């Protein structure tokens, strides 16, 4: 399992890469709301002032998690650029690969 925060960090990184690769492209796509649906396991630390953590259940691990400890959550993320407050734009060409 991985933390929900890590999933969101990775999504942000992927979008940032797409924006970077869009530089100089004539055709751009505005990124609209992103709907993320994940199955999470919830854990609570027992120490004083303990925190609740949300762990994303990986596809191969779902058979091992009990249904009483997992929940399906849906998040709608609306990405905005810090510099403009507007939704980002991405583009690319078919066959583009990471460099």
Please, could you describe this protein's structure?
It is built from one helix and six strands. It is an alpha+beta fold and 99 residues long. The two termini are 29 Å apart. It has a four-stranded antiparallel beta sheet. It has one domain. A hairpin with a 7-residue loop joins strand 3 and strand 4 (52-56). It is 18% helix and 30% strand. The model is unreliable at 61-68 and 94-99 (pLDDT under 50). The protein has one helix at 4-21; strands at residues 2-3, 29-30, 34-44, 52-56, 70-77, 89-90.
Which strand order does the major sheet show? 1-4-3-5
Shape descriptor reads elongated
Q: How would a textbook summarize the main sheet?
A: 4 strands, antiparallel
Q: Mean pLDDT, nearest integer?
A: 79
Number of helices: 1
Number of domains: 1
Give, in order, the helices and strands. Answer: EHEEEEE
- DSSP strand tally: 6
Distance, first to last CA: 29 Å
The fraction of residues in strands falls at 25-35%
Task: Pick out the low-confidence regions.
Answer: 61-68, 94-99
Question: What descriptive keywords fit this protein?
Answer:
disordered C terminus; single chain; 18% helix; 1 helix; four-stranded antiparallel beta sheet; two-stranded antiparallel ribbon
Summarize, please:
This protein has about 100 residues and is an alpha+beta fold. It contains one helix and six strands, in the order E-H-E-E-E-E-E. It has one domain (about 1-90).
Helix and strand layout, with pairings?
Layout: E1 2-3, H1 4-21, E2 29-30, E3 34-44, E4 52-56, E5 70-77, E6 89-90
Antiparallel strand pairs: 1-4, 2-6, 3-4, 3-5
């Amino acid at each position: 399992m991985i933390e929900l925060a890590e999933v969101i960090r990775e999504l942000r990184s992927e979008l940032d890469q797409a924006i970077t690769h869009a530089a100089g492209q004539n055709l751009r796509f505005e990124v609209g709301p992103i709907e993320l649906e994940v199955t999470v396991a919830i854990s609570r630390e027992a120490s004083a002032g303990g925190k609740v953590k949300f762990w994303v259940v990986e596809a191969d691990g779902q058979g091992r998690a009990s249904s009483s400890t997992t929940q399906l959550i849906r998040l709608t993320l609306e990405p905005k650029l810090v510099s403009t407050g507007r939704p980002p734009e991405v583009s690319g060409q078919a066959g583009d690969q990471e460099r």
